[in-house]
Design a protein that fits this description.
This protein is α+β, with helices and mostly antiparallel strands and 89 residues long. The protein is built from three helices and four strands.
Amino acid sequence: MNAVVSVIGRDAVGIIAKVSAGCAACGANISDISQTVLHEYFTMIMIVDIRNLTISFDEFSDQMSELGKKEKLDIHVMHEDIFNSMHRI
């Protein structure tokens, strides 16, 4: 069971470390990651294994959103099933 985590914000030192630490603190494991910097903007998409979450999925999503607010980043978490349904043709 996976989730898709997207992160967008102004580039700064330590973004990947902070987001991955937030995932690890909740028991989520990053299984794939893609990131780039476009001019001064940082963008990242992660596939995160959520089978071993220590909190509910909703709590995980809320905590990641709060981390984003604290770090001035836009962080969204979406369950893989919903993501796939939204992008099915």
